[in-house]
Amino acid sequence: MTETNQEHRASVAIIGLGLIGGSLGLVLREAGYHVSGFARNPAVRSRALALGAVDLAITDLRDIVDAEIIVLAVPVLATPVVIQDLIPHLAPGAIVTDVASTKRQILLWAKNLLPGSVQFVGGHPMAGKEQAGIEHADIQLFRGRTWCIVAPDKTHPSAVATITQLAIATGALPFTIDALSHDAVVAATSHLPFLAATALADATFTRSDWASLQPLASSGLRDTTRLASGDALMHRDICASNHVPIVKQIDQFLERLGELRTLIHEQNDEQLLAYFERIKTHRDLFLAYLDARAAIT
Asked: What homologous superfamily does CATH list for 182-266?
């Protein structure tokens, strides 16, 4: 720990100790922050302590009173209730942030519920796993990943700087974006992939003849349906809070799938080959971009 951190360890309270909250605690403690964590389940609190994800496991929200930064790491639809529970215990000047996958609704709740004595800066680390829970917490989870910083209008620059520094401390790459743009983009890059994987899993695993097909299924089906193992509650809340952009992306996906179906139905071999080659090129470029970004982090 540096001499500066010995003099003052910035105090962070994480509300919710699942995969994201637990991973955040691990990396922030290593970076020199003092981390307290709250979870309603005593077993989760005990596990967070055992894993080293928190310095202190708190059992009552009143114990966050000294926290300079409060991170909401709870399901999207739980956010307004948690904010209301926190309000009596927020110290003047505290900064509240979150890690939710949708931002417009979160910022609206924060604006309507939080007192003017605290600042709110929305956040969304573009990181995760299909496994949920504190048991899967990973200190490397955020390294090299984009961390969206979504600040409401008139947010004090020092609050934005504090949350930006918190993101940097995890090894993430801060990315400033407005809430509407964020929700439209992640509907395409994050929410639709989960829904497509889920629909594919549904169409395959619920077939009446699946038992006879299963011996012929291998890594292709496993890899393309991986996201369907994601946290069901989290994705339910995502769909509930970002339904308009998601429906738009589903419509565009169905249009592309319909075009592909037409090419196959009409046995248009040359156009089908060109289609596959074109999309392969696009994906190869995306993979090269990811590799290049990983090389500099």
From this structure: 6-phosphogluconate dehydrogenase C-terminal like domain (1.10.3660.10)
